[in-house]
Design goal:
Elements lengths: L3 H8 L2 E4 L2 H10 L3 E6 L8 H15 L3 E6 L21 H18 L8 E4 L1 H4 L4 H7 L6 H4 L3 H4 L8 H4 L1 H16 L3 E5 L3 H15 L4 E5 L12 E2 L2 E2 L9 H9 L6 H8 L4 H8 L6 H17 L1 H15 L10 E4 L1 H6 L1 E2 H7 L6 H9 L3 E3 L2 E2 L6 E2 L8 E6 L3 E7 L2
Parallel strand pairs: 2-3, 2-5, 3-4, 5-6, 9-15
Antiparallel strand pairs: 1-6, 7-8, 10-13, 11-12, 11-14, 14-15
């Protein structure tokens, strides 16, 4: 059986790692407990998180033990990495609610039976820390001069960085120490933007416990154009089917840039690499077959085979011009909105088909918008109840992007 490290390397997950040869040997010889942390800043994981979930599944399948660490404590502050301003502070109730939703989602991907995986929450040790004891044990090992050179903090110095946020690295580092002491956790994994934070914990455990532990970061899920994958006009692509339907997920992946197909097949599916390379090498119209495979396989992993089949059938039906609803994304509105009437440009932004009125105006002027099978030519059109058919109205942006507007019953 191949070493899981080689699998992760071949499929393109790994960005940086400490003591690569040592870690590879450890993963070959021992059952390694490792962790990935997830701050509970929303009530669902996203497609961006799915890279880390895939790595956890690969590792578990190879016999290693994942710890899914919920950030019930660290979310009280919020990671300043990549931020130009302070994160919105959530209440403890909001954070606890979000963490519970994360738990439900992780259970779909990892096997938590018989200690094969662990679900932890850093609120269990962070919320009751004694400040002076913590600073005496942990704070003395962190250099302010060094921390100020890190990108996660340096970007904020001109706008102002609070001590509140400055302490985030110490808390995340303490997580590694705590998990080492509780579960003999030897490896922390995270996104490439977490390298500085992860090294903080790695150094702390090595200093205080005099043992070898390791750090690894994963490449962020980005497109060939350099943009973060998993963002649309409506916002993030969520793993919760109530926030992003299986059909929306399928369509999003079906519309992948040709240049990204092989990369995403390697990162987001379990297809053998020979098949990934074969599909990625298809050209012209044939590449669409690879995109269908990508969309189906990811939707199946996230939502199950039944939902993936429904999404695929709905997508094919709409592409061929059929009027089957399948699992087309929709937005519900109160009847009163259309009794008074709402401008088409405003409606397009509300349902997420466009980001602004100017984008909506261009869409209509370029004959790119269809409503109930008829082209919309009037940018000043007002949508009223008369435009609905049995309480529903179908919008189509371009040839492939459908969205249904419904009246709340």
């Amino acid at each position: 059986m191949a070493n899981v490290y080689d699998t992760l390397l071949e499929r393109g997950y790994i960005d940086q790692v400490t003591y690569e040869d040592e870690l590879r040997e450890l993963l070959e010889k021992e059952k390694v407990t490792f962790y990935i942390g997830f701050d509970a800043t929303a009530d669902s994981l996203t497609l961006g998180h799915f890279i880390q979930i895939m790595v956890m599944m690969h590792m578990q399948r190879a016999g290693h033990r994942p710890i899914a660490l919920l950030g019930g404590g660290t979310t009280m502050i919020g990671d300043p990495s990549g931020r130009t301003d302070m994160r919105k502070m959530l209440t403890k109730e909001e954070i606890d609610h979000n963490a519970e939703r994360f738990k439900e989602q992780f259970a779909r991907f990892l096997d938590f039976s018989d200690g094969k995986a662990i679900m932890e929450n850093n609120a269990n040790w962070l919320l009751n820390l004694n400040f002076l004891e913590f600073m005496r044990e942990v704070g003395v090992h962190f250099s302010v001069n060094y921390m100020l050179t890190l990108e996660s903090y340096k970007n904020r110095l001109e706008r102002g960085l609070t001590f509140f946020e400055f302490s985030y690295m110490l808390l995340q580092s303490y997580d590694f120490l705590e998990l080492y002491r509780r579960y003999n956790c030897k490896l922390q994994i995270g996104g490439s933007d977490q390298w500085s934070n992860i090294l903080g914990g790695y150094d702390l455990v090595r200093k205080l416990e005099n043992d070898k532990v390791y750090a690894m970061t994963l490449k962020l899920l980005t497109t060939a154009s350099g943009a973060k994958m998993g963002k649309t006009a409506k916002g993030a692509i969520w793993l919760d089917p109530k926030k992003t339907s299986p059909y929306e997920l399928y369509q999003y992946l079906r519309n992948t840039d040709d240049r990204d197909v092989e990369k995403f097949l390697a990162l987001l599916t379990f297809l053998p690499m020979d098949e990934v390379r074969r599909l990625g090498s298809l050209e012209g119209a044939e590449i669409n077959k690879a995109k269908e495979v990508l969309a189906f396989e990811v939707t199946k992993l996230v939502h199950g085979e039944e939902e993936a089949v429904k999404a695929q059938n709905a997508a094919r039906a709409l592409f061929s011009g059929a009027q089957e609803e399948g699992s087309i994304p929709y937005t519900e509105f109160d009847k009163s909105v259309f009794e008074e009437g709402i401008g088409i440009l405003e409606l397009l932004t509300k349902v997420g088909l466009t980001k602004s009125n100017s984008e909506g105006r261009r869409l209509i002027e370029q004959n790119g918008l269809t409503m109930n099978d008829e082209k919309v030519n009037d940018i000043g059109k007002t949508i009223t109840l008369e435009d609905f058919r049995e309480g529903k109205l179908m919008l189509r942006k371009g040839k492939k992007v459908y969205h249904q507007v419904r009246i709340k019953q």
